[in-house]
Amino acid sequence: MNFHVLTLFPEMIEYGLNTSITGRAIEKGQINLNTVNIRDFSENKHLKVDDYPYGGGAGMVMQAPPIYGAYKSIIEMINIDNSDKKYTKTDQRPRVIYLTPQGEVFHQKKAEEFSKEEDLIFLCGHYEGIDERVLEMIVTDNISIGDYVLTGGELPAMVLMDAISRLVPGVLNNDVSAEFESFQDNLLEYPQYTRPEEFMGKKVPEVLLSGHHGNIEKWRREQSILRTAERRPDLLEKAEMSDKEKDWIKS
Ligand code: ADE
């Protein structure tokens, strides 16, 4: 998986991703991280990359030429040079994800979809936005990480890269752990416990010490369903459950 990031703050992305599990995946070459500083493509002698909005209004707008130049440099690097064409289904070029509160809200299924790509380009905006013309030319996916407004697209890009990385084969030590987790089947994960067996008077549920795998599985399924009903009832509508399991919620 090759992540390319168009940003004014490459050090933020590098610091964030070269840590923990994603850092190890980068070291092992399972993920490549290529940050491109948009400012390096400024056509202005003061390296300016923004200007006042046409029509007036507050704030500054990121200009099209440096962003397009930075984008082209990535396309040339990965040698898929048909970027002058507007995107159509038959075009072969990497997806360009623009992080914006105006995008589709990110979810696990989207992470799975993106994890199948070989190259992903993330475009991080700042200030009041980006000149619409360059967005029309290069962006294939508008993605939001939730209904709130951040100061820039770097944190959302890191959120996506983290969620996508852990789905890349080999990145998690234990492949099974990406399979049985929250949002699998639209259910939240069951609670986990580890040693000590008793902590400040609170004991680990007896069934988990029993060694009876059938009972443990049943208990975990029940906990998943009850937890989802309590915390995320909206998810439960999409979850597949037997009539007996539906009764667990009522009782
Ligand atoms: N940029 C600013 N706010 C954002 C959000 N909520 N999601 C994605 N990108 C953003």
UniProtKB/TrEMBL annotation:
* Key word Magnesium present: no
Q: HAMAP family from the xrefs?
A: TrmD
The family database entries (PANTHER family) matched by this protein are listed as: TRNA (GUANINE-N(1)-)-METHYLTRANSFERASE
Q: Which GO terms describe its cellular component?
A: cytosol
For this entry, the protein name equals tRNA (guanine-N(1)-)-methyltransferase
- Keyword set, alphabetical order: Cytoplasm, Methyltransferase, S-adenosyl-L-methionine, Transferase, tRNA processing
**Which EC number(s) does the record attach to this protein?**
2.1.1.228
Chief location bin = cytoplasm
Coiled coil region boundaries: none
**Enzyme kind, highest EC tier:** transferase
UniProt keyword Transferase, yes or no: yes
**Compartment annotation:** Cytoplasm
State the Gene Ontology BP annotations.
tRNA N1-guanine methylation
Q: Where does S-adenosyl-L-methionine bind?
A: 125, 145-150
Q: Which family does it belong to?
A: Belongs to the RNA methyltransferase TrmD family.
Q: What does this protein do?
A: Specifically methylates guanosine-37 in various tRNAs.
Looking at the record, the residues that make up the tRNA methyltransferase TRMD/TRM10-type domain are 1-238
Q: How does it assemble?
A: Homodimer.
Catalysed reactions, as listed in the record = guanosine(37) in tRNA + S-adenosyl-L-methionine = N(1)-methylguanosine(37) in tRNA + S-adenosyl-L-homocysteine + H(+)
Q: Which GO terms describe its molecular function?
A: tRNA (guanine(37)-N1)-methyltransferase activity
